[in-house]
Write a structure and sequence with these properties.
The chain folds into 2 domains: 93 residues, Probable tRNA modification gtpase trme, domain 1 (Gyrase A, domain 2); 73 residues, Alpha-Beta Plaits. The longest helix is centred in the last third of the chain and has 17 residues. The protein is globular, with a radius of gyration of 17 Å. With 185 residues, it is an alpha+beta fold. The protein starts with 16 loop residues before the first strand and ends with a helix. A hairpin with a 2-residue loop joins strand 6 and strand 7. The model has no long low-confidence stretch (mean pLDDT 93). It has a 6-stranded antiparallel β-sheet. A 5-stranded antiparallel β-sheet has the order 6-7-8-3-9, with helices on one face. Helix content is 19%, strand content 38%. It contains 3 helices and 13 strands, in the order E-E-E-E-E-E-E-E-H-E-E-H-E-E-E-H.
């Protein structure tokens, strides 16, 4: 029987990481992701201690977070749980809701900046959004180059970007190029 080796979305055994003068980019294959949708007539549950947010919102508690994706719809994520059946755990925490495993369909890339100003300058190069759309504690869907992404601003200096796994290399290239240009300025 063949010995199979799990690979990250960027095609390596270990997560990719690149450091620049102003920031660090890190692939995060350890984060589990599942979608949660209300069924007709349902009410938003509290999942893992999180009150599900409204439009543009994101809530976090410990290593778990949820962000709004549409009316009655959210993505729920958890650090260090990608190897588990996270969707089953979410389903148990949200009875009567529809849950779909999403982890392997997406790539998560985290950006850590040295200063809030570096983070703002980096975001200016990536997306055409008003600053309040990506204020700390906010999440939004946007276009980054030719790709649709979710951008979650955890703090003034930390941003998590979710992109389609099939475009992982293109997303990494866009982020790495922007970081290199930021460093050169």
């Amino acid at each position: 029987m063949a010995d199979l080796i799990p690979l990250t979305a960027l095609g390596a055994e270990a997560p990719r990481r690149a450091s620049f003068a102003a920031l660090t980019l890190t692939e995060r294959p350890d984060i589990a992701l599942a979608s949660l949708a209300l069924r007709k007539g349902g009410t938003a549950p509290q999942v893992f201690g999180l009150a599900l947010p409204g439009p543009g919102g994101m809530v976090t508690s410990g290593g778990t977070a949820a962000f709004w994706t549409g009316p009655g719809q959210w993505m729920v994520m958890a650090d260090e749980r990608a190897e588990e059946d996270f969707a089953a755990a979410l389903c148990a925490a949200a009875p009567g809701c529809s849950v779909t495993e999403q982890t392997d369909g997406w790539v998560a890339i985290e950006m850590d900046c040295r200063t809030p100003i570096a983070a703002e300058r980096f975001l200016e190069r990536l997306v055409n959004l008003p600053p309040e759309a990506l204020a700390p504690g906010r999440a939004t869907r946007s276009m980054l180059h030719h790709m649709a992404v979710y951008m979650l601003r955890h703090s003034e200096t930390r941003l998590l970007i979710w992109g389609m796994r099939s475009a992982a290399d293109s997303l990494w290239h866009a982020l790495e190029s922007a970081a290199a240009r930021l460093t050169a300025d």
